[in-house]
Write a structure and sequence with these properties.
This protein is about 20% helix and about 30% strand. The chain contains 5 helices and 10 strands; from the N terminus they run E-H-E-E-H-E-E-E-H-E-E-E-H-H-E. It has helices at about 25-40, 70-80, 140-145, 195-210, 215-225, and strands at about 5-10, 45, 55-65, 90-95, 110-115, 130, 150-155, 170-180, 180-190, 240-245. It is globular.
Length: about 240
């Protein structure tokens, strides 16, 4: 059967996350249900990375197989038409060979976390950023972040319910930069632990507000104890940016 690779954009507000669940609408359910209508068959989406409730996607990648052989643009148009009014859109579709797998073929995943620092609460960006009334020290946050670059045991930044076999991960990039009123934290790695990015951002937030020093991030990492790490940052500021193959 033809295999299609999808690039997907979505607003995670009000969704239970990527994965199909019984307690509310998900990105997976939205797209699978749309495909089943025009394909005339049930399909299963395989995804590069499952995001939690409230997390957004700028370029999530998934694939599926179906019996119908349709032009790429027809697949895009059909899914987007049938998935309304959900805030989920397929940006592109392309035929790939049967060896391609959205999850297992992926070589690199990247995330962006947005923190809005200003006295006024967000109106247009509500649900899209982590809002902090307090200013943060971006340079100190970036300095602390550099202690996490490389291959480490990230137990201190791993959710207690994480099902990964090992806490070892290699973080290839972690930067903190000021962009207007926002602080952007960018992370890049082959794979991540559950809540790893949000736990890292929550920890860097302690550095930014002066509650921790940059070296305290290293201390937390070496403790290999989730209780020694910082809080979990809100889901609303996190974006899956892209998957590379």
């Amino acid at each position: 059967m033809p295999r299609y690779k999808l690039t997907i954009e979505y607003d995670g507000t009000g969704l239970v996350g990527w994965q199909r669940q019984t307690n509310g609408p998900s990105v997976q359910q939205t797209i699978e249900d749309a495909i089943s209508i025009f394909a005339g068959q049930e399909v299963r989406l395989h995804v590069a990375g499952r995001t939690d409730a409230g997390v957004h996607g700028l370029g999530m990648v998934a694939h599926f197989d179906m019996e119908k052989d349709l032009p790429d643009q027809k697949v895009v148009q059909a899914i987007n038409s049938l998935s309304r009014p959900a805030r989920v859109a397929v940006l592109a579709a392309e035929r790939v060979d049967e060896e391609f797998h959205a999850r297992f073929s992926c070589l690199e995943r990247s995330y962006l976390y947005r923190i809005l620092c200003r006295p006024a609460r967000p109106a247009l960006e509500d649900g899209k950023v982590w809002w902090s009334m307090q200013a943060m020290d971006v340079e100190a946050m970036h300095e602390g972040a550099q202690h996490l670059i490389g291959r480490h045991d990230f137990t201190s930044f791993r959710a207690s319910q994480c099902q990964a076999n090992s806490p070892l991960r290699t973080l290839d990039e972690l930067t903190v930069a000021q962009v207007g009123d926002e602080i952007h934290v960018r992370c890049r790695a082959r794979s991540f632990l559950h809540h790893q990015v949000r736990n890292i951002v929550g920890t860097l937030g302690l550095v930014g507000t002066g509650k921790w020093q940059p070296i305290d991030v290293k201390t937390a990492l070496e403790a290999k104890d989730r209780a020694k790490g910082g809080p979990t940052a809100p889901a609303c500021g996190l974006y899956f940016v892209e998957a590379k193959y």
